[in-house]
Amino acid sequence: MANELDPHYLVALMNYEFNSGQDGSARRLDPPSHLTSGIVDHHGTNVRTLPILDALAHISVSRPNSQVVAMALQLKPDTKEIHLTIAENQDVADSLVNHLYNIWRKLQALSDEYAGQRKAEWDGDQMLSPVIPLDVVRPLKIEIFREVYKFCLEKQKKRVNKWFRALCDFMVELEKRRVGVALEGFERNLSNAMVSLVLALQLVFKHSENQLTDDEWERVYWHSMIANKDTKLVLADRHGLGCDALAQELNGDRDGDPFQLRRALEKLISLPRHIESLFGFAHSPRLRSTLQYHMTISAVPGQAQIIILPTSQEQWKSLLEAACGQPGQWQRKDALNLFQKFESREQKCPVHCECGLIQYLQTKHCDSWDNVPAFSYIGVSRLSCSACRVWIKAFNMLGGAKFYTRGSHGKWYWPWAMPMMGVGSLRENMAGMVLDEYLTQLEKKRKIKRAGSDSSGAITSGAEHGVSDADEQSARAVAGAALLESGGALSGFFSDHVHFLHANVPRFVG
Ligand SMILES: [Zn+2]
Question: One Pfam family name from the record (predicted)?
Answer without folding.
Answer: OTT_1508_deam
